[in-house]
Amino acid sequence: MGFLDRYFGLSAQGTTVRTEVMAGFTTFLTMAYIVLVNPAILSQTGMPLAAVAAATCASAAFASILMGLVANYPLAMAPGMGLNAYFTFTVVKGMGLPWQTALGCVFLSGVCFLLLTLGGVRQMIVNAIPKPLFAAVAGGIGLFIAFIGLKEAGIIVASPATTVALGDLKTPAPALALLGLLIIAVLSAWRIKGAVLIGILATTAAAWGLGQVTYQPTPYDLKALTATAFALDIPAALDIGKTGFGILEIIFVFLFVDLFDNVGTLVGVSKRAGLMQPDGSIPRLNKILFTDSIASMAGAVMGTSTVTSYIESAAGVAEGGRTGLTAVVTGLLFLVALFFAPYAQFIPAAATAPALIIVGALMMAPLKEIDWEDAGVSVPAFLILIGIPLTFSIANGLAFGITAYAVIKLLRGQARPGDWLLLVLAGLFVARFIWLSAG
C-alpha cells in the first residue's frame, strides 16, 4: 500500500487504494459494453469476431494500464465508438479497402499522432482552446453520456415524428434503469462511497432475478487473437499510387476525429476530477498525449480500430478516482475480460445506463463558470453544449464552438496575433464542414 501511495501520489490527491479500486471497477462496468459492441461492428468487415473481441480486450487493457503507469491519470482507454463505425462502413465497405489495409491506416494515424505530440503541436492545440469553453465541453459531454444512458435503457426511443420520444416505462428495461437511477441518486445524496457501483450491481441482480438478462455465450478461444494480430498492411496503406489519395483522407479522418474527441474527453474528465490547474492547464499533458499516440498504434497491431480515451472514465472519477491507479484497475479488469469476453453479457444495459445518467448530471457543475451574459462566450459555449449530444460527436460540438468563438472574436476586432492557432483551427473546421457537405 505504501508503494502504491508513493507511486500514484494517493495521499496528495486525497484518495485511497480502496477508493481508486472501486473507481476502476465502476469505470470498467460502464464501458464493458465495448467488449461486445466493437466486435459486432468490426466483424462486418470480414474480421473474425472472436479475434476482434480478444483484440478489444487486449488493446483496452494495454492502453489503460499504460495511461495509469505513465501519465498517472484516471483515464481509461479502448477502441473508440464512431471510429469503429467509420472503419467498417466507410473505409472497408464504402471504399472497398481490405480490413488489413484499414488497420495500416489506423497505425499510420497513430504515427502522425506521435509526431504531432513530440513536436508539441497537440499540446498547442489544447492550449489554444479558450478556457471558458472548457466548461461547456464538460457539460456537453455530460449531456452526451446521459443521453446515451437514456437511450440504452429504453427511456428515450427514436420517433419518426419528433426524432426522440419517451419509451414505454412499463417494460422491464426502462423500469430497471429507473430503479438503478433511484438507488444511485439516493446513495449519492447520502454521500455513500461506491454509490454508482452499488447501483450497477443491485440493478444487475434485479435483472437476473426477473429473468431479464439474455445470456448466450459463444465459443471463444484465446488463440483467436492471432487472426487479426499483426495482420495490418502498412505498405498497402502507404501505396498512394495504387489506392489514390483516399488513403490520405482516411488517415486524416482517423487523426482529426480522435484528436478532438480525445481533447474533449480529457477536458471533461479533468474538470470533473478537479485536476485542471487554476490557469486552465492540464497536468502531465505531454505524458497523456504520448500514451494516447502509443495506444493508437498498439491497437492497430493487435487488430482493432483506433484506441482512444473514454468519457465513461468520468463514472470512475465520480466515485473518487483521482490517479492512474483507477486506470490501471480498469485495464487489469479488461485483461481478465480477455479470458471471459462472452460473459460481458452478464451485466445488462439497464444496469449501466443509470450510471451514465448520474455522471452526466454531475458534469453540469462547471457550467456555472461560463459568463452567460457575454454573447461572445455564451453563444459558442451553447453551441458546444448542444452540439455534442445532438450530433453524437464530441469533435463536432468542439468544431461548432471553436469556430463561432473565433468568428465572433474576429468580427468584434478582438483577434490578436497570439490567436493565430485558434483562427487556423476554425478554418480547418469550416473546411471539414464543407468537405462533409460535399460528400
Automatic annotation (TrEMBL):
A Pfam family matched in the record? Xan_ur_permease
The answer to whether the entry has keyword Isomerase is: no
Q: Which UniProt keywords apply?
A: Cell membrane, Membrane, Transmembrane, Transmembrane helix, Transport
User: Which regions span the lipid bilayer?
Assistant: 20-42, 49-71, 99-121, 133-151, 171-190, 195-215, 245-269, 289-311, 323-341, 346-367, 379-408, 420-438
The record's subcellular locations are: Cell membrane
Q: Which GO terms describe its cellular component?
A: plasma membrane
**Its membrane topology, per UniProt?**
Multi-pass membrane protein
Question: Is Transmembrane among the key words of this record?
Answer: yes
A GO molecular function annotation here is: purine nucleobase transmembrane transporter activity
Similarity section? Belongs to the nucleobase:cation symporter-2 (NCS2) (TC 2.A.40) family. Azg-like subfamily.
What name goes with this protein? Xanthine/uracil/thiamine/ascorbate permease family protein
Species, as recorded: Asticcacaulis excentricus
